[in-house]
């Protein structure tokens, strides 16, 4: 794994997003790094994640390369405000990204508002795509292990054979779970209902033959690689009726003429999302497949992704 010296102390920041307060960390350029003329990158974390995990790993790399890098906890998650905790609201997630861009544009004399890029990881690869499609302040977009929570919900999984078509039963089950959760919350507004775990990291509770995607997730979130006390992998069922009608990539062509780079591992169950999204995007665009890596390998193994991302952001924001 490629590691980076943690010489720069991040600056704790906060900014509003809709009615929520978002908490983040701003990594300034590493002293002695190349002058990027105030170029800055917003880094958005995966579903069920927090800023201290893979987002910070990539932010340190970007800081070492001379960029400002802003990581943040999505609304309802981590140190940011919002109830119920862990709620996955696609439109809030997209607004959080746009709010982070707004925060950077206000750093007069430090960040150049015409040199702001975006990096989205996992579900945020989808959210970042949606945000870039409708925000001209974002000058370039890179994604790592991108996925679409809407397509995942409608198909009942992340595998390519599942994602090829909508699954009416999966949709019905998602909507029923959301409906029942909302009814329970309405009947007892003060109750703290514990949401189910999306990625089971306790081997004693894991299925005998777990889905390969969930097995790979447990290997990351259940180990030193990705474990964090604020990353619980719990997703309230109310999230699912918010996700079911959302789509990350339908308007991917609107990113052009801004540069687009999508990175995924050759062994990632989610590789098909990036391939589909890059196919309907217009240039300049590039798909970069990392041989032998799965979806979660690229969260903390930057050996192949770091050089590619640095070249991309340097050329796109020069």
3D structure, described in words:
The protein has 318 residues and is an alpha/beta fold. It has one domain: Rossmann fold, CATH 3.40.50.1820. The protein is 35% helix and 15% strand. The chain has 11 helices and 8 strands. The protein has an 8-stranded mixed beta sheet, with helices on both faces. Helix 1 (54-64) links the parallel strand 3 (40-44) and strand 4. It is globular and about 55 Å long.
What attributes does this structure have?
8-stranded mixed sheet; single chain; globular; 11 helices; 318 residues; Rossmann fold; alpha/beta
Q: How would you summarize what this structure contains?
A:
This protein is an alpha/beta fold and 318 residues long. The protein has helices at residues 54-64, 90-105, 123-133, 149-155, 160-163, 168-187, 212-221, 239-243, 271-280, 297-300, 305-316; strands at residues 11-17, 20-27, 40-44, 68-72, 116-121, 140-144, 260-265, 285-290.
Give helix and strand order, one letter per element, not per position. Answer: EEEHEHEHEHHHHHEHEHH
Average pLDDT, rounded to a whole number, is: 94
**What CATH architecture would you give?**
3-Layer(aba) Sandwich
- Counting DSSP H or I runs of 4 or more residues, the number of helices is 11
In angstroms, what is the radius of gyration?
19 Å
> Regarding CATH, which class?
Alpha Beta
> What would CATH call the homologous superfamily?
Alpha/Beta hydrolase fold, catalytic domain
Query: Main sheet, how many strands, which sense, barrel?
Result: 8 strands, mixed
The CATH topology is given as: Rossmann fold
- Tell me roughly what share of residues is in helical segments: 25-40%
- Category from helices, strands and their pairing: alpha/beta
Shape: globular
Poorly predicted parts: none
Domain module count: 1
Between the first and last Cα atoms, what is the distance in angstroms? 28 Å
How many beta strands in the DSSP annotation?
Answer: 8
Proportion of strand residues? 15-25%
Strand order within the widest beta sheet: 1-2-4-3-5-6-7-8
InterPro entries: AB_hydrolase_1 (IPR000073), AB_hydrolase_fold (IPR029058), Polyketide_trans_af380 (IPR051411)
GO molecular function: hydrolase activity
Pfam family, one: Abhydrolase_6
Protein name: Dienelactone hydrolase domain protein
